[in-house]
Structures are given as C-alpha cells and as structure tokens.
Amino acid sequence: MAGLAESGSNPDVDLLYDINGLAKDAPGWFDRVMEFVGEYGLLLAIVLLVVWCWWTVRRRGDEDAASSVAALVWAPLAAGIAVLVNVPIRGFVERPRPFLDHQGLEVLVSGKTDYSFVSDHATIVMAMAVGLFVAHRKFGLVALVLAVFGGFIRVYMGVHYPTDVVGGFALGTAVALLLSPVAMALLTPVVRAVERSARVGWLVRARGRGGVEGEGAVIPGARREQASERDLAA
Asked: Cβ distance 115 to 93 under 8 Å?
C-alpha cells in the first residue's frame, strides 16, 4: 500500500487507497451503514424521489403534466438501457475488481466476481438522476447529489476504482440525455392517452385538476367574458 502511494505512478489507484482508507479508520457500525447505503439505500432514495416527483406533478395538474410524467417514466427506462449498454463494455474492457489486483483494501462487500469497469451502480443512479433532472429541476438536483455521493461510496467500499465510477456517470448521463428526445417522442403520446382514460387517468393528473373536461371544468376566458357582460349591463 505504502509503495503504491509513494510511487505516484497511478493516480487512480492512489485515490482508491485514499478513499478506501477512510473505511479502515471508521468504526465497524459506520462501515455497515455505508455498505447498506452504497448497495441499496441511495438507489432506493432516488426511486422514492421519482415517485415523490410523480405525486407532486399529478396533484398539481398542470397542462404539461403528461410530458412531465413521460419524462419520469423515462428515468428508470434510461437506467435499464444504460445497464444493457454497459454489458458489452464490461466484456470488452475486462477490468478486474480492485481488491483482486491490490492488497490492503478494506472490502465492505464480498462476493463481487464480475468486472469492475463500468460501475453498474454509478450508471444506474446517474441515469435516473439525469432523467429526473430533465423532468423536474429541483428533484433532479437532489438526485444528482445523491448519485455523486453513491459513486464515492462505491470507492469507499473497495469494490470500484474512481474511474469505474466516472465512467458510469458518463454512460448514465449520455444514455439519459442523448436518447431523451426519442424517448419523449414515443412516451408522451402514450401518457396523453393514459391521461384521457377514465379509469387510469389519475396516474397522470389528479381528478378535478388542470381543467379536465366534465363537472367543475373551467373554460379559459369564460369568467372574464361574464364579468365584462355584467359591466356592460351596469
């Protein structure tokens, strides 16, 4: 470990030891918490952010609710596509996990036998975060912060090099952004059809909101016209 740190021949490995060294100095209970957060917690948190954003959008019932919900649907789809894209990348690069080539690492999760580059976790969380950012800026910013923290934890856990995480961030971002126009063109008409449905329209817009046709619907300009008629009559 000391030799690697002193050599300075590989900044990626040096940073790996620096970050993973924090796990050695931390109490055992803290490492167990970081292990859970890194494996499941942050991904679950971003999924809950997507659900929360969907609930907020449908309750508000804006005119662009359908396009916003379509963007939210794209977030997990982007993550799934990015992981599929990563399959041939991993097979081509064939980079072993860092603990297989470097001694002295504090590995918090055992049983990792697949290749290291690109990190699936970093790819998934960043693709979902970018997709959520496309749908809603405030929720997306929170998700982006969580995604970056998740990448840090993967290195802290000793299961990825820093460049594995950076590669995952780049892959997730590229898939979510580059395919977003095509995805929105395909998903928005579907979501609009769901919005018009009497049975499942609530998935897109809460009932009685956003000027939905039927009882209680407000026709734009009607109130102003009635007011003008009263003024003329007076």
From this structure: yes
